[in-house]
Each structure stands twice: as structure tokens, then as C-alpha cells.
Amino acid sequence: MNTPVISLEKGENINLTKEEPSLKNILIGCGWDIRASDQETFDLDVSLIMVGADGKASSERDLIFYNPAHQVSVCGSVRHTGDNRTGEGEGDDESILIQLDQVPADKHRLVVCVSIYKALEKKQNFGQVLNAYMRVLNADTDQEIRRYDLTEDYSKYTAVLTGEIYRYNGDWKFKAIGTGLTGGLLEFVRMHGLSAG
Q1: Which of 56, 186, 72, 37 is nearest to 121 (CA)?
Q2: How does residue 120 score in pLDDT terms, banded at 50, 70 and 90?
Q3: What pTM was estimated for this model as a whole?
Q4: Helix (H, G, I), strand (E, B) or coil at 192
Q5: At 140, phi and psi to the nearest 5?
Q6: CB within 10 Å: which end of the chain, N or C, has fewer?
Q7: Extents of the domains making up the chain
Q8: How many CA atoms are closer than 13 Å to the CA of 28, on its beta-carbon side?
Q9: Residues 21, 28, 23, CA angle at the centre, nearest 5°?
Q10: What is d(CA 183, CA 58) in angstroms, rounded to the nearest whole number?
């Protein structure tokens, strides 16, 4: 069954559990294009941090990103599918798989961020990134549930906190956030209670 894809606006959220009661495995896909006029290569990275009710991660192992040592969460419920260093080609550039029924009970939110690798060193920012989006798919059916297109001007920022999957009264919900960060991945990590070291 092909249902039309519904796009979310910044700040909107949906109840994933009510939308698809049998939903167990989701894929968070992120994609982007680079302005043709920019000669420098851009390496954008998708990261996810698992946090408790206080909004903080309990250890650095709660950060899942491209580093091979951090591509799978300790509990095994979250897995980064690998680093894409160019953003070339159609479809998702990077993605993260989540087994919702395996996420530990003390993890209340799974927060997703897209950052530019070595942005300050290369003098790069999200103003040079086009058609960026984050989408949620049913990983078992490959059906897109919701899409969030990042249409704002993020020219001052080196990372964007795109969205989060969170627990609410026993259900899983998804919220489109779209907050720009000037400190890249390090700021994302710090704001959730981890040191930048």
C-alpha cells in the first residue's frame, strides 16, 4: 500500500505507535546535496545520542556515530549503517537503524544530529548544504512514515539537531526539531551531558 508521504514542520510531532501499532524497527535516513559552486568536498555525518529522562547520556557509549567503535549501541538496539563522505547519489546519504522494542527502559529520547566534519577548519556551514532532510521509515516494509525537510537558512551553523524519537505514555513519538548549532558535533555531545574529550 503506497500512502502519500506527509512532511512535518519544525516543532511538529507524531505518534509512531498509533500510526503503525506493529512498528518495531525504524530507519532514520538523512540526505543532502551540496551547492555545485562549492569546490571543496563536504563530509556530513549523522549521529544519535540516547538520553534518560533528564536529557543526559549516561556514558560516551550512548553516542552512536560513524566511528567503528561507536556504530552500535551497547544494548544493540541502535546501529549506524556507515560513513558517507561525499553526499553523492540519490536517496539517504547516512542512516541509523533502531529496534524500538530493544531500547532500554531508561533511555527516554533518541536525539539525531547532522554535523559537518571539520567544518571550522574548512570554513564550511549548512548554508552551503541544499535539500537536507531527515525521514523515518518502517525498516521492515521500507515504507516512509514521515519526512522533515530542513528548509531554514542554517548559514551560521555547523550542525543541525534534526529530530528525536521519544517515549510518551508507553508510545514512541517523533518530533521535528531543526535547531542549528554553531559548535558542531562537540556542542551536540556537550548539551547532552558528555565531555568533548
Answers
A1: 186
A2: confident
A3: 0.89
A4: coil
A5: -80, -30
A6: N
A7: 22-190
A8: 31
A9: 10
A10: 21
Three cell numbers at 92? 539517504
Q: What is the pLDDT of residues 128-154, one digit of tens each?
A: 888 889 999 999 999 999 999 887 888
Distances (CA, A) of 42 to 52, 104, 120: 32, 34, 12
* Amino acid type, 142: D
Residues 13-32: pLDDT tens digits? 999 999 899 999 999 998 88
- DSSP letter string over 152-175? S--TT-SEEEEEEEEEETTEEEEE
Mind giving me the DSSP string for 174-190? EEEEEEEESSHHHHHHH
Cell of 127: 548554508
Residues 62-88 pLDDT 10s: 999 988 999 999 999 999 997 665 445
CATH no., domain 22-190: 2.60.60.30
First to last CA, the chain: 47
> For the chain, what is the radius of gyration of the CA atoms?
16
Supply the DSSP string of 60-121, one letter for each residue.
GGGEE-SSGGGSB-TTSSEEE----SS--SSS-SEEEEEEGGGS-TT--EEEEEEEETTHHH
